[in-house]
Write a structure and sequence with these properties.
TIM Barrel; eight-stranded parallel β-barrel; three-stranded antiparallel β-sheet; globular
């Protein structure tokens, strides 16, 4: 049925279609709709261990789809082994002006220049903890947190108006805010849609940022009495020297994993007349570039930490190849837009 549903969605402006599907997934968090989704999309158990966490399968939802943790329970019913929400910023921000999302059907791709639209840290914390929401709203009908049937990651980013010299304070605040709720946290310094953000991947800036985050992580772990894995998401457009520097710093600062990769600014081989739109490109055209970065990161890491591969995974064969190349986990997003929610089940069944 998905090709028919997709034809209807593709008649809508891309961001409108995204909000519609997000609301449908939000309804999917309610019983008995959740039970129906689980029955349709439940995946075989393919357990694995990474970052000190137990995953039911290696397929996750990449950050960017559910930025404000509105639909995580419905999304988890699609069979994901992990859900990464965000990117979350400390303070609410609207992101870049619209239009800012473009479909390239000829290329099975998306260009976005969203710019971290976020309802902010406090809003997302309330989604993750109903008791906190009730307290802040001075209600007494606090419900216990409903356990998500998947590993939960939170993707962290700085506010647009925070200068890079002060970015560490944004990330430290976010780490403290989400340490009690997330199974792991991702430091996003690789989106191409926030001016100057990618400069935080440089050796000196990245070392300063990650060193302070690691120290704060140790404090949070002591208080929470459990591990708090920290991952770093990198860009696909780094030179070999820049990639070497980034991986060296990630290892030296005792991060737990690397997510490779974010969207690309490259426009190699595109056919669509929308290829000149600015922003990050995702989907099938990112496949070759993302695989190349994965192979380089695997060699440089040499088994010291786990790697999550994302970018251009459109079918089960793409996912299997990433795992064969050395990724521990994979994430999908644009592949869902073009091939539907059954993609998760298809990938897990093929492993």
């Amino acid at each position: 049925m998905y090709p028919f549903f997709r034809s209807l969605l593709f008649r809508l402006e891309p961001e409108t279609a995204h909000h519609l599907t997000l609301q449908l997934m939000r309804i999917g968090g309610l019983q008995p709709v959740n039970a129906i989704l689980h029955g349709l999309y439940s995946t075989p158990h393919k357990p694995l261990h990474a970052f000190g966490l137990n995953f039911k399968n290696p397929v996750g939802l990449a950050a960017g789809y559910d930025k404000d943790a509105l639909a995580m329970h419905g999304l988890a019913a699609l069979g994901f082994g992990h859900i990464e929400i965000g990117t979350v910023t400390p303070r609410p921000q609207t992101g870049n002006p619209k239009p800012r999302v473009f479909r390239l059907p000829e290329d099975e791709a998306i260009i976005n220049r969203m710019g971290f639209p976020s309802r902010g840290s406090e809003f997302v914390q309330m989604q993750l903890n109903p008791a906190l929401r009730a307290k802040l709203l001075e209600r007494v009908d606090a419900r216990p947190r409903r356990r998500l049937p998947a590993i939960l990651g939170v993707n962290l980013g700085k506010n647009k108006d925070t200068p890079n010299e002060e970015a560490v304070f944004d990330y430290l605040a976010l780490l403290q805010n989400f340490a009690p709720y997330a199974d792991y946290l991702t430091v996003n310094v690789s989106s191409p849609n926030t001016a100057g953000l990618r400069r935080l991947q440089g050796r000196t800036a990245l070392e300063n940022l990650l060193t302070q985050l690691h120290q704060q992580r140790l404090i949070e772990q002591t208080q929470l009495k459990h591990r708090l894995p920290l991952l770093v998401k990198i860009a696909p457009d780094l030179t070999d020297e820049e990639l070497d520097d980034a991986v060296d710093v990630i290892l030296q600062t005792r991060m737990d994993g690397i997510i490779a990769t974010n969207t690309t600014l490259a426009r190699d081989g595109l056919r669509s007349n929308l290829q000149s739109e600015s922003g990050g490109l995702s989907g099938r055209p990112l496949k070759i570039r993302s695989e190349a970065v994965l192979q380089k990161v695997v060699r440089r890491v040499n088994g010291q930490i786990a790697i999550v591969s994302v970018g251009g995974i459109m079918n089960p064969d793409d996912a299997k190849r990433r795992l064969d190349l050395g990724a521990t986990l994979v994430q999908v997003y644009t592949g869902l837009i073009y091939n539907g929610p059954g993609l998760v089940k298809a990938i897990v069944r093929s492993l």
